[in-house]
UniProtKB/TrEMBL annotation:
Entry keyword annotation includes Cell membrane: yes
Annotated protein name in UniProt: Cell division protein DivIB
Taxonomic classification: Bacteria, Bacillati, Bacillota, Bacilli, Lactobacillales
Primary localisation category: membrane
Native species: Weissella coleopterorum
GO biological process, one term: FtsZ-dependent cytokinesis
Transmembrane segments: 61-79
Record domain Cell division protein FtsQ/DivIB C-terminal: where: 159-263
């Protein structure tokens, strides 16, 4: 055998030994449950995990930027002059001016739209601090125009207490008359009333009749007697006199205009028991 042949056989034998050892190692590793190391695969997994973390952080950053941008836009809109009312209307007011209604309600022309929308209950309750305001209702004609509908406690009379004049409201409360004119609205005066409770009872009844009929009365006199402890004497602007129970004002006084139209004489219209007219 030549040297070349000997060398080839030796190399073939070494390769066979290496292959055999590799197979034996793999057999034992699999039998013992030992992991077979693979460096290239581990590197691939590590790179994949890093890429996933980066994508997650990138998505979170985009979401945060989007939220902050929306918040900034909302704040700019709320502070913008475009989010304030161009006009605030007041309707239904008789005794009170627009400025008095707005002041009582704590509303001003520069109030933001969002505040009037979100705090309606506060403004409604605040308005009631003024005894002349029974209620207000806030409506929105559009996003630039608000309308405040007013329900007043109207003035139904005037009374003098301790040499000072007070207005009587439809719910019976008294408010100070600060006018230099003793009776600027030509309201009926309440005379000889013994206490506040009697004033309140008559005022609430009187407030239920028409405004025109209210204005036809110049005096309301508390005048009970032995036969009728609810008796009132009304002095009318047309020169007539009316006798009536205070509890019957809203039920019977409405017939007065029709009865007056049937006579050209002045006298007393008695509504206490039945209804009859007695000429002066």
């Amino acid at each position: 055998m030549t040297k070349k042949n000997e060398r080839d056989e030796l190399m073939h034998g070494e390769q066979s030994d290496k292959s055999m050892r590799k197979q034996i190692n793999q057999f034992f590793a699999e039998s013992l449950g030992m992991p077979i190391k693979s460096a290239p695969r581990t590197d691939a997994i590590s790179k994949s995990q890093n890429r996933s973390k980066f994508n997650f952080m990138e998505r979170n950053s985009i979401h945060m930027i989007l939220i902050l941008s929306i918040f900034a836009v909302i704040m700019l809109l709320l502070l913008s002059p475009l989010m304030r009312f161009e006009k605030i209307e007041v309707i239904g007011n008789q005794d009170l001016s627009k400025a008095e209604v707005l002041a009582a309600s704590d509303i001003n022309k520069n109030i933001p739209v969002w505040q009037l929308l979100s705090e309606q209950n506060y403004f409604t309750q605040h308005a009631k601090n003024n005894p002349q305001l029974k209620n207000i209702k806030i409506n929105y004609l559009n996003m630039r125009i608000a309308q405040i509908k007013v329900e007043e406690n109207s003035k139904v009379g005037l009374i003098n207490k301790n040499n000072h004049n007070y207005y009587i409201l439809s719910d019976g409360r008294l408010i100070d008359n600060q006018s230099e004119d003793k009776n600027p609205q030509n309201l009926p005066t309440y005379e000889k009333f013994p206490d506040y409770q009697s004033v309140r009872k008559v005022a609430t009844q009187f407030a239920s009749i028409s405004t025109a009929l209210q204005h036809s009365v110049s005096e309301i006199i508390w005048s009970p007697d032995q036969e009728d402890d609810e008796k009132l004497t009304l002095i009318m602007d047309d020169g007539n006199k009316v006798l009536i129970k205070w509890s019957d004002i809203n039920k019977k006084l409405k017939y007065y205009p029709g009865m007056v139209a049937q006579t050209d004489k002045n006298g007393t219209f008695n509504f206490q028991v039945g209804t009859y007219f007695q000429q002066y």
